[in-house]
Design brief:
Blueprint (H helix, E strand, L loop, with lengths): L4 E7 L2 H14 L3 E8 L3 E8 L1 H14 L4 E8 L5 H6 L9 E7 L2 H14 L3 E7 L7 E7 L1 H17 L3 E7 L5 H6 L1
Antiparallel strand pairs: 1-3, 1-4, 2-3, 5-7, 5-8, 6-7
Helix pairs in contact: 1-2, 4-5
């Protein structure tokens, strides 16, 4: 199965989240990437596959369990660096400028991270999703200062447009010790 698209549903209910995962998997030929509880009693289901299948699966779950939906997305042509960043397996070994984008929701953060890495020549270090974060999420990226600034602005705009931006920051010359704390 070609994984050129990501879809996510973020739910207020754990039971509804498990039901959403089942609906998504029964609706379309998609791959389950992540299905779990997250902080503050929420549940997320992240799937991958071809765009039409992912869209159909997310729509089916959101329509059938609309009372519990916090946020959803479908990202067609997702940037290739999103997958390793989600799993915590980034191969970044040199910390240049450091950009951080922080969101109140998992869904908006992943959308913002994808927009950020598509906007400028940067490397995504990590996407951390809501565990031990009070339900928030953040991503870190690195590159030259101007590129990181452009990327952070692009990603933050996607999140801010949904009203879910917590903070964005660019650190021009971060201490190298910060990298070991991220991965």
């Amino acid at each position: 199965m070609e994984m050129n698209s990501l879809g996510l549903i973020e739910m207020t209910s754990i039971a509804a989240g498990m039901q959403a995962a089942d609906i998504m998997l029964k609706t379309s030929q998609v791959e389950l990437i992540l299905s779990r509880t997250i902080c503050s009693g929420k549940y997320i289901v992240l799937i991958g596959g071809e765009v039409a299948a992912v869209q159909s699966a997310v729509d089916a779950a959101a329509n059938q369990i609309d009372f519990a939906v916090i946020d959803t997305f479908v990202i067609p042509n997702v940037h290739k660096d999103i997958f390793p960043a989600l799993s915590g397996h980034s191969d970044v070994s040199l910390l240049e400028a450091l950009g951080i984008i922080e969101s109140f929701s998992v869904a908006s953060l992943i959308e913002g991270a994808d927009a950020a890495v598509k906007a400028a020549n940067v490397r995504i270090i990590e996407i951390r999703l809501a565990m031990a974060l009070g339900g928030k999420a953040f991503c870190t990226l690195t590159g030259e200062v101007a590129a990181v600034t452009s990327a952070v602005d692009a990603g933050a705009k996607v999140i801010a447009d949904k009203g879910l931006l917590v903070n964005k920051i660019v650190i021009a010359q971060p201490r190298p010790e910060l990298l070991s704390e991220m991965i």
